[in-house]
Specification:
The chain is an all-alpha fold and 180 residues long. The chain contains 11 helices and no strands.
């Protein structure tokens, strides 16, 4: 297996320019998410999860177009992340779509504030959770971390936002990476 940090840097360099229907590209979205996590005082594993939460989009072959179906990017990403960064990073990534569905079910203002692309992806992902799904998600041990990640995710779509470069997060990636 290649060095996980090098793999991440390569993926963002090669595929981070896609917008997937949003006003910002994946690189800027990731950097904004990670900066929000860092400014909130999140531990390194959550800053890394914020940076890499949409890595599944970069691993897939979806080009720059918004999805026409649920691409399960959270599952693809978590599967890729687990052996490289462990469950503390992969877990919140695996749940960040479910966290959006949960938040939309319990907070109408959250639903109303979603970007148009996020509203469309919510539809493709099954819409807001039903009462059973809400109860299951809220009782999950990682629900709090996934909800924090979701907040940073949705807030990280500001065009022309000044962000630190990817290199500013290399130390965090190195700290959380599993070395073989």
């Amino acid at each position: 297996m290649a060095d996980p940090v090098d793999e991440v840097l390569y993926l963002f360099a090669e595929r981070g320019g896609g917008h997937f229907g949003e006003a910002v590209d994946q690189r800027s979205h990731a950097l904004q998410s990670a900066a929000l996590a860092r400014s909130a005082g999140a531990p390194d594993h959550l800053v890394t999860a914020a940076l890499l939460h949409d890595i599944g989009h970069l691993l897939g072959d979806t080009g720059d177009a918004p999805a026409t179906g649920d691409d399960r990017h959270e599952a693809v990403g978590a599967h890729w992340l687990a052996p490289r960064f462990g469950p503390w990073v992969a877990g919140p990534v695996a749940l960040h779509v479910l966290a959006k569905r949960y938040r939309c079910a319990v907070d109408m203002s959250y639903l109303e504030a979603l970007s148009p692309a996020s509203i469309e992806s919510l539809r493709l992902q099954g819409g807001p959770l039903d009462a059973t799904g809400v109860a299951q998600f809220s009782s999950h041990p990682a629900a709090d971390h996934a909800s924090l990640l979701r907040d940073w995710d949705e807030a990280a779509k500001v065009p022309d936002a000044g962000t630190e470069p990817m290199e500013a997060f290399v130390g965090c990636l190195q700290h959380t990476a599993i070395r073989r």
